[in-house]
Task: structure prediction
Amino acid sequence: MIKRILVVDDDAASCELLREIFAARGWQVTTATSPAEARLRFAEQSFDLAVSDINLEADATGLDLLKDFQARCPVILVTGFGTLDAAVAASREGAWDFISKPFKVDEVIAAAQSALARGGEPPAPAAAGVMDASGMVGRSAAMVALYKEIARVAPTRSTALIIGESGTGKELVARAIHRHSLRAEGPFLPVNCGALPENLLESELFGHTRGAFTGAVADRKGLWAEADQGTLFLDEIGDIPLAMQVKLLRALQEGEVRPVGSSRARQVDARVIAATNRNLEADVAAGRFREDLYYRLSAVTLHVPPLRQRREDLPLLAEAFLEKAATALGRSLRLEPAALAALAEYDFPGNIRELQSAIEYAAIHARGGVVRPEDLPLKLQASEASAAASPAPSWLASNFADLPTLDELERRYLMHVLEAVKGNRTRAAEILGIDRRTLYRMAERFGIKLTDEA
Result:
């Protein structure tokens, strides 16, 4: 049976693009360029799927159409402004999926196939949380995927494990989950587990009674109990000693804490979110981290991409950090294009935190109202000078020499990435910013045989 899809977008070119993409799969496509026309089409016939832009130039939005149509078919929302708030709004109202422009063809097809395969029964709307600014910046595919995961996780009671390199913004992700949860009115309490010795960490988390140890001059509640009806964020969870891991596991399983020096436990309803920059699976295998605690913490796992995997977000981040730094200095500043180019040449091993530090340095040293390359930290200036002195990479020159089509260039780049990672599919997918299933489809489309992975 042929599947029928309704595409809604106030931009006729976008409508036509999606029509061509879906028609190539053998699906029957109807388009509408306004909410009124979309409602008319829905009154005339039934559809198996609706795909609508959120920001329609009309008195109704894609979210309004979602409310109208979701009882009859799944709805996928598309937006040119990929933000966490948009992802949360789409998830809260019951959208099947959320896609950010510019989208990949494979991404759109995969989302549509998923919705159509479920027999037209859209997911139940997520419980409503508090909608406010997340503080997260980025519109790259990797960040939109993270926004969608936050939107799915936030309304639940599940523990969550956030994994990412140092400086990627793991605490910001934890705070976003809290803000969009049903616990948003409760406290959010962060604990750096790696900064405290074991005895102090236990007292900090669980509290203590008077006289429990030298210096315990009064009873103390502990952060876990203080986080009741809120969220407890355990940063650097991989640094907790094994003996403390046992106590942490018990607190998670039983939902109760026992202060140091006390024989009585107290029930606490606190959601736990943990974060680490370590490979906990490797630590489990090496006996440095308890397997049962790892599985208890990782009911949901979120991966925060490093800056090198979301370079297209660098201008947005740089502008946001510059505005914040300039406001603190009481100045008005803008980035000279050459300075932005210099930032783009640097790898930022310290990720977002290092970028923010570099922008603050530049804001302090800028003369006049413009940040120039010479205002940046010396290591970034050196990176720019090195890039300027180096000839274009031979691979780049050879692959553009014959002016290939975009499809051919995509095929060559895929081959280049696979060769660079020695056929490692997981690593190739990470570099390309796609999932493994999309990688398989790309390889199939271009007739590329993926080697067996060790």
